[in-house]
Amino acid sequence: MTQRKKKLADGERRVTLKTIADHLGLAIGTVSAALNDSAAARTIPIHTKQRILEAARKLNYQPNYFARSLRLQRTYTIGVITEEIGDPYGAVIISGIEEALRDTDYLFLTVVHRHDPKVLASYSRMLMSRGVEGFITIDTSIQEEPSVPTVAVAGHHAVAQVTNLILDQRHAAHLALAHLLELGHREIAFMKGQPYSSDSATRWAAICSVCEELCIRIRPELVVQIEADLTTPHLGYPFAKELLRRNCPFTALFAYNDLSAIGAIWAFQEAGIRVPEDVSVVGFDDVPLAVFSNPGLTTIRQPLEQMGRIAAKVLIERVENRAEYLPEIVIEPELVVRASTGPVMRRVKA
């Protein structure tokens, strides 16, 4: 690199507010107010603001993040706490968060706790020590009031200063079970979610309530409890095998989520049971894999990406004191009918 080019490169790295101010013949305070869009910027003429912004682009001005943080006493950083990065449910929500923050000054740090309370507590402290201004939690149970604004996606405990973003579980259960009833199904098997998953208890309570309303009998021998902590369809595979080993006839399965439903379909097909001719299967969430299942999976859709966007928007508004605290935001589910459900033909027997 020639000396001239080296000086130019060094100069580009050292573009500051003073550089822009000297270039335009303005005060540093005026340039700072315009670029930070502070309250003082309201007194700056529009044409002057435009000159400052244009000069900043032309000179490739990059704000000093640390200096700005010290000056404003802010980090513009939020913490995202999730159960598992590879989980399709959480991954789509995080995608929505990223999309919502893309055009803002905020960045987010993500940590994974795998439902380990010690890890969760440790990572929460670490994020706080790095100056996060708020939290978004995904499938994470919050028991105590946090010290910063928090939005919990799939949070169900009423905790002060936590906005719980939840799905209407009762409506979701009604959509799925009414669909199966319309197809003639009366002997329905169920997969309950893992005890540590935030939605498990509320979803099962909703299913029990709707079954009572619709006069659907829940037979204990047709209920299996998922215990595995997996992010693949193998989540449901062994528990579907367990259902078949019990030798109790059923014509439909309502699974806890899409991964367990797809794993169940594998287990049924392996046993020579056709889906949906012999047994219909309904999942929950509508993760991207659901549409590529064979057959395509009928499921309850949660607008996961939208939920991520809503969580980010609500959190930023609270961090910046632009909105009042809401204890709960309810999201409506949707039934998506694909090829994994059909009318009753015969009872399934192992």
Search tags:
41% helix, Rossmann fold, 15% strand, 3 domains, 350 residues, 6-stranded mixed sheet, 434 Repressor (Amino-terminal Domain)
Total DSSP E strands: 12
**Count, helices:** 12
**Helices and strands, in N-to-C order?**
HHHHHEHEHEEEHEHEHEHEEHEE
State the fourth-level CATH superfamily of the largest domain. Response regulator
Distance between the termini: 76 Å
Oligomeric state of this protein: single chain
From the coordinates shown, what is the CATH architecture of the largest domain?
A: 3-Layer(aba) Sandwich
For the largest sheet, list the strands in their spatial order.
2-1-3-4-5-11
Q: Can you walk me through this structure?
A:
With 350 residues, the protein is α/β, with parallel strands linked by helices. The protein folds into three domains: 3-71, 434 Repressor (Amino-terminal Domain) (Orthogonal Bundle); 74-166 and 304-331, Rossmann fold (3-Layer(aba) Sandwich); 169-303, Response regulator (Rossmann fold, 3-Layer(aba) Sandwich), CATH 3.40.50. It is 41% helix and 15% strand. It has twelve helices and twelve strands. The chain has helices spanning 3-13, 17-24, 28-36, 46-58, 65-72, 88-101, 117-129, 169-182, 200-213, 237-245, 258-270, 304-319, and strands spanning 77-82, 107-112, 135-138, 150-153, 162-167, 188-192, 223-225, 252-254, 280-285, 298-301, 328-331, 334-336. It has a six-stranded parallel β-sheet, sandwiched between helices. Strands 7-6-8-9-10-12 form a six-stranded mixed β-sheet, with helices on both faces. α2 (17-24) crosses α3, α2 packs across α4 and α6 crosses α12 (304-319). The longest helix has 16 residues, at 304-319. It is elongated and about 85 Å long.
